Amino acid sequence: MPLDTNIKKVLVIGSGPIIIGQAAEFDYAGTQACRAIAEEGIKVILVNSNPATIMTDAHMADCVYIEPLTADVVKKIIEKERPDSLLGTMGGQTGLNLSMELAGEGYLDKMGVRLLGADPVTIDMAENRESFKAMLLRLGKPAVPSGIVRDAGSALKLAGELGYPVIVRPAFTLGGSGGGIADTPEKLAKIAAGGLRLSPIGQALIEKDISGWKEIEFEVMRDAAGNVITVCSMENFDPVGIHTGDSIVAAPALTLADKEYQMLRSAALEIITELKIEGGCNIQFALYPDSFDYAVIEVNPRVSRSSALASKATGYPIAKVAAKIAVGYRLNEIRNSITKKTNCCFEPALDYVVVKMPKWPFDKFVYADRRLGTQMKATGEVMAIGSSFEEALMKAVRGAEISMTTLNMRGLAEKTDDEIRALLKIKNDTRVFTVFEALKRGVSYDEIYDITRIDRYFLSKLGSLLKTERRLAGVSEEYVPDELYLSAKKHGYLDKDVESISGAKIREKLHAAYKTVDTCAAEFKAATPYFYGGYDSDNEAAEFIDRDKKRVVVFGSGPIRIGQGIEFDYSSVHCVWALKKMGYDVAIVNNNPETVSTDFDISDRLYFDPLTEEDVANVINTEQPDAVVVAYGGQTAIKLTGFLHRSGAKILGSSAESIDLAEDREKFDKVLAECGIPRPKGLTVFTAKDAIKAVEELGFPVLLRPSYVIGGQNMVVAYAMDTVKSYMELILSQNIESPVLIDKYLPGIEAEVDAICDGEDVLIPGIMEHIERAGVHSGDSIAMYPAVTLSAETVDTLVEYTRRLALALKSKGLLNVQYVIYDKKVYVIEANPRASRTVPYISKVTGVPMVEAATRVALGEKLRDLPYGTGLYKKSKYVAVKVPVFSFEKLKGVDVLLGPEMKSTGEVLGIAENITDALYKGLLAAGYKMEPEGGILITVLKADREGMLPVARRFSELGFKIYATRGTAKFLEANGVKAEAVAKIHQSEENTLTLIQSGKVQYVFSTSEQHQEAYLDSIKMRRAAVEMSIPCLTSVDTASILTVCLKNRGEYQDFAPLDITKMQR
Amino acid sequence: MGYLLLANEKIFKGSLCGAGANRPVIGELVFTTQMTGFLETLTDPSYFGQIVLQTFPLVGNYGVIEEDFESAGVHLSGYIAREICDEPSNFRSSGGVAEFLKKQGKIGLTGVDTREITKIIREQGAINAAVCPEDPRKLPEEEYAGLLKEIREYSVDSPVLKATSDKIEFFAASAEYDKPFNVAFWDFGAKGGIIRSLTARGCGVTSFPAGTGAEELLRKNPDGIMLSNGPGDPKDNEPIVAEIKKAAAAKIPIFGICLGHQLLARAFGAGTEKLKYGHRGANHPVADLETGRLYITSQNHGYTVSGDTLSPKFGRVTMINDHDGTCEGITYSAAPAFSAQFHPEACAGPRDTAFLFEKFISLMKEKR
Question: Do A255 and B61 touch (CB under 8 A)?
Fold first, then answer.
């Protein structure tokens, strides 16, 4: 059954903003799907609200809609474009839920739109807990003992029958949000109530706790003819009890005997056959370690995070194959693009082992609860490939950018044996390191197994690393013996660690040689160069390098984390494409399995390895490139600059020197002075005493930050000396001998400029204005393009300052500058000569392919020879508003108050012909339900009361009931706004918390000073709002914008979706 | 230290494990891409006389589990893996693989770049080799030349007769079947999995040594005849082929697997040929030409039936390998017989084609 020629126009639904549980993997999947369908000559219509993605590039589909992912909007697009089919299995849970909603109400039938890849009935079988259980029963496959409840009372009754502990799994929620393990009725009542509220169908599964069983996943595929294969098996290092997204995962499964493996594989195939899925599917099993007992935990009838991992782990492009199947092909009619000799109807054979390690945001959220459970908390992940488990694990650890290159975690050595034993019981992000420490203390495998249920096989692998370290530590010679050095390299140790652990020198450094990921364990010759490093002598990469061509190596951005998201993958990929277009032979190095950049057909050669200095030097040793690129891989790549420069690599674009000029505060100040550009006054201090003196000199408010962190970590805005004192105490207690920077904080309008400089001229594609005043991290601000309120004069100043700065910094390529406009005066906050977070957004709205232009310029072309001109690029006819999206509901204990530290995980875009429409779309896309009636709660700092007054007034006019804490209520009443006073939490039993829980308020406006201790009233209250899914706004500016949008809500109901490929520029 | 010396004089250094050896152990070097199932591989008699290399680097993770054996002992000559786990973990495990090899008197080699060796086999075809306890480069010139000659000239002599059992044995059908089929099982070096697949489906199985004549087999009045897998070149078994020809004339349902499939084809006049480096793994796609369906199969064979040499008078190729188009299954018209090149009994590998046993049973039912 080849291509189904009835399919002429397909609507593909993306997954929306990056949130915890739904990250870059869906850009990867969606991009593959769009390309796979388009190459069949089928028209592709794409809708996705996330502008930072590659899939929303104008050339990825015939029509691209960056619009809110709501049923109403998708209907409008269907009515406008009249597609004959819809592919909803590429956009994660968001895309699937949306497709089901449209199918469920009969809309798709009515419009003659065929749902590809899955049947609503079978999707329901996988997603609805009751039909899921019935399906398993029919197939004779065991489910976890459980029952469905719709209220907390029945949950308690059921748990009584199953026996505690029990797990609560709300139906249809992302990444398992709202779920949890309850070991007492009290806990169950609480978790069940929350989970049921979050479930869109008000349903939750209560099941017996099978924590400690092995957790095994299978990625399976099926075509319309019924052919079924498994692509990959995966085994979690962390057994059942920790969400698979938060588990260290190995591929393939390593501890299953063939009997166990085939039992689960057969079950997986029977399930996908029963579900009649046409495409890919993920099936999770729990396997009891001491018998053949198992249970099917979950089925995801779509591509998923695990399928992205499986694709990268095997080289088998699941999303692409799923898309081809959806348009009619059979597995054996799809070519295996790696071997080019075989087709996609086979099961990949691996001759290496893969380890995935999650990347958690706890470095940003130091007050967050680090314990792991059924709620996923990781924002991203890294994958590592090695010839041994040890090597792969070590690569994963050092690739995760957690300042560790071995399993020895700082601080653990000081703990007593008892403390370490106690720590083993805590399932958190650092447990693997605790286990390693326990092994060092001589705690037996059996004891560790009894506590953690981590399979003894994995424990023995940690033990094997420990043995290597002990052998290294035992070296007494001046040089590490060659044989020991080689075995340490094969266990993944970096040279610097070999030397520091052994106290001996390395006689002759070994360079990595590269092996190929080829889907077939070398059975067939691979045509696609996808490599990982190791320490055998055969270097397979060498034969793939075209020595006659100019070669460039591009460094990627590593795992997705807060502050460094998918936008850097976007830029990296565009850089590769631009270089290829210009005739270069391009290699990319990256270790994030969720990304487009690690797809094997993006670059000429893909090195799937960590981005540490040694790993990168190895790639350079094999590639011998003419130049390297660091400008697009975020901080991960930028921090390699110095090393690369010292080792003699030619850095394309801005030099190491200009990057240093921008990053070193003193040098930067000098540049600014030379350019005559003001910046907020600042001082550098080392002690609390000096800090007080500095603050007295500068005057409140001030911005405090340590000089050693980048990206807004540990920054606060202080309005009072108490904050300054406690901040200094906290920083100084960490024994870091690094100064603290204190700047005058200017609460003005923030503007952001992305520019391209060729050394002579500067092109500014666009100027963005932030809604929130300076003080809220630019990544967390709502940004408008073009600037809305800035005067022509200010714009001229911004253009001129940017031009001067770009030239003075000698930047070549991209430059991002942040400004604050206060009292009509423009100040520079910071400048970065590299790709910024806003590059994809501005490229898409202005039509200037910024990365390509910057890459051309970096290679010597002149802006005046490119078709975009110089100076400020012409304004778009459209207004585009970027709205940040947060994942607060996933991160217990994190305060939602916005400040100088970035907290958002993703973003959406609202595009329209005017600012109010664009804002409305943006807010809608970001998940605001835009409730038109009800109540609001205001509890703000004294300083913000004035600013909140118009907001309160407008809500009052809209018919909302206004609640406010006593002081604020009094202030509002005094200014003619009727408000009901509510007690603070500690003041009364009836208080803000109970008010929020009562469901009487639809919006909460809360500001307070930045103390992050979770016990504070205001934080408790804000958390309650988050847990009730009530929008909680912590900036007066955001609040004002919301009221404007709400006021005009009716008029926006029928806004038209915009196809960005047809936007007139 | 241990070494692998290939017939093309390539040498790989690793570590020896398993049983020691005073002198090099010679065999035909083949690779298998299966990621699980090392126990089944080790105990599969079809590997008789071969040095088997596992392309998956981590072997022995779940240790030795006797109930998963395909035969009582290890028939291969040498075993190569990148890493053999010395601390296995599984609730059924009774020990490590290295220790097991030692008990079985078999030599193992670890710590070599198995991928590089696999690439050589892929490019040059299955190649003879020797696992050497000492560095062959350090041998006196003459001794080295002698060893090389021995490697290059090595071939197994009547492996089937060595791998088959020496006695008639009966395996009862599962207890729930009260009217079991009587299956005569021709053991050419059989995997236990085939017998288990039959008994589990209601067949009482009488296993006969490879050298048994057709008459003796038929004397048992079997409902069907099962031709087992086995080692070596099918061409080297002409006396057995002649007996199969006689048995087929009785028009009793016959099912052949692997070598059994090849011998049955030869009995009907078809030819066989050697594949460059064979099919060994658990991921091979087989297309059923009659239904268009594809199945993932477990395979272990170095020879194949030359499909175009099968006369349409006797039967037709009904299944092919989807990678290289080689013959994977034949349905005969001249007799109630069919055969598969792959292993529907799995062990190790996918169980997706187990329905072929049902097909055999339906044939016997029809004839009953």
Answer: yes
